[in-house]
Amino acid sequence: MADPSFSLLFQLPNDAVKNVVECMDPPDIIGFSLISNKSALIVKSLNCKAEPFRVEVTSKVDVIVSFKMDGYYRFRFYESERLYFGEVSTQPPKDLYPPGYMKLFWSMDEIGTFEKKNFTMRDWMDHICKIFNQPKINSLEYKPKVFSAQSVKETFPKLYQLSIECSNEEYERMMKIFNYSESIRVVRRNINHNNELGIIPKIFIQHFERAETMANLKISLDNLLICNTQLLTIGELYMTNRGFNTFLKCWMKGACPNLKHVDIRVYTEKALDLDIVWKGIKRQNAPDNRRNTCGTCEHRDFLAFDGGVDIKRYDGTVATIFMQFHQPLRFFGDCDLKMLVQH
Amino acid sequence: MSVENAPVVDVDEAAIPVEKKMYYRFESNDKKEFRVSELAIQQSETLNRLVEAMGYTSEDVENKPAIAIENIDGKTLKLVFQWCEHHKGEAIPVDDGSVPKIVEIPEFDAKLMDIDNGLLFKLIWAADYLNIVQLLNVSCKKVANMAQGKTPAQLRRVYLLPSDEEDEAAKRAAQEAQDPRAREVEEEFEERKRQGGNSFF
Questions:
Q1: Cβ A34–B152 below 8 Å, yes or no?
Q2: What domain of life (chain B) (predicted)?
Q3: Are residues A18 and A167 in the same domain?
Q4: Are A28 and A169 contained in the same domain?
Q5: Buried b or exposed e, range A41-54, using 16+ CB within 10 angstroms
Q6: Do A14 and A122 fall into the same domain?
Q7: Which of B45, B71, B105, B145 to mutate to test the interface with A (most CBs of A within 10 A)?
Q8: Number of domains in chain A
Q9: Which numeric CATH code is attached to B9-145?
Q10: For an interface test with A, which of B46, B113, B143, B171 has the most A Cβ atoms less than 10 Å from its Cβ?
């Protein structure tokens, strides 16, 4: 009868050791990786490549590690500090102290708890980056509920996108701390606070690589025309047919010179009228079978569409416009506007 | 088919098979001889290539010496060939790189691997050496199952894995044992670097 242990693991050939670890259940693989540097390297060698991570720092810290098709791990730290809806901490902000343990979830299901008393939050992040072969943090959402901004900055010194709520106050505070973020994502938690929307022009005029706004944010044509970003995603934009036309004409005359990729969900008050949208614009239909993707940017999958309509800027730069209708109703229009500027 | 009835035969015990299939003869490092069907051999990439390269006829198989497998003992090889005979004709799985790897241990394999750790270790080595993909998968899965629900500290005990400190100490000891002078030179070089120089010359 076999013993419930196998003390000869590291004396097996390397491929067999890898095979053993590959056959483990996901929480056991994470547990195995935490034994030593060598075991972490074995897990790294399995080549599980995750997408860039998402980090949420609220009254707890969640690191979300997702895989293209399969689902995601959520590594949760500081569960004991957790504040529930409406609760406010009465303590001064704390540094991200060594969390002691981590709770692991696969999608929504809790699958394990792992102790590592001597690991700082930075050590945990380094470990997660190592075993999932992913050095990048895609987005960080920080709410100053329990933890100090400085310690969050020190723990996550590199990030691609900062995710913030759309108040002016929040924007000023966040940009002071995380001024190294290349990209910004604005969300609006409370749709009743219309007075908070003055932030959009401030963000659009900045030279971010990417600016993304979610639904329920009112953005005017003027805001759109000052946009200085390279990648623009707008979750909800209200525009008239004439406004649509003006935006395209202004781009052709040199507005938004840095734009490379645009993905906007556009709502027009009246049904979308292409005669008005294209009025006075010299254009050419692109072949239906032409795949429009970006071959130069890291975000090459950000936009991908076939066909479209080519328009030309005054300096000869071509942009392909693609409109996809969702609700061709009689009284209002709803479409996706995609724009890929050749660069 | 039960483990006991698997058709691997020790030469001194079994009669020559009546079927006209080709049965190759192999010899373990402790001089135990086995007859294994051509179809069963296909489970092992290494042996399959070997016999293909040899191009033996039925007469060669009988008249020439058994093919020696020098790294594997008779007890292990018997398990290997029992497994191969039981699974002969089955498709060899292709590793699609997915993690975790989904491996089911069939009842026959579970019984076959109801052995002590020392023998299981040898079986994995043999499966790896002979490149028997599915036997390697199921035997590794058996070892992987020992990790189920364990904390890292428990896993360390289950697999008797060294800590980082122990790894470091072992590495240092190995370096010193290999070449004490090289270590001295390295220390001297580091000392010179600290003093501002970057060369011995």
A1: yes
A2: Eukaryota
A3: no
A4: no
A5: ebbbebebebebbb
A6: yes
A7: B145
A8: 2
A9: 3.30.710.10
A10: B143
pLDDT one-digit tens code per residue, B135-172: 999 999 999 999 998 989 899 988 988 888 888 888 88
pLDDT for A249 equals 96
Domain locations along chain B: 9-145
Q: Residues A219-255: pLDDT tens digits?
A: 788 888 999 999 998 888 888 889 989 999 999 999 9
Close Cβ partners of A293 (under 8 Å, ≥ 6 residues apart): A300, A301, A303, A304, A340
The dihedral through the CA atoms of A65, A66, A70, A71 has a sign that is positive
pTM above 0.90, yes or no: no
Of A3, A31, A46, the CB nearest to B117: A3
Burial class (CB in 10 A: 0-12, 13-18, 19+), A240: middle
- B89 Ramachandran zone, left/alpha/beta (phi>0; psi -120 to 50): left
Same domain, A201 and A288: yes
Interface of B with A (CB under 8 A): 97, 99-101, 103, 113-118, 120-121, 124-125, 127-129, 136-137, 140-153, 155-164, 167
Q: Per the CB < 8 Å rule, is A12 touching B157?
A: no
Q: Based on the domain organization, do A186 and A119 belong to the same domain? A: no
- Contact between A16 and B151 using a beta-carbon 8 Å cutoff: no
Domain that residue A259 falls in = 160-343
Is A146 within the bounds of a domain? no
Same domain, A203 and A57: no
Nearest to A114 among B116, B144, B152 (CB): B152
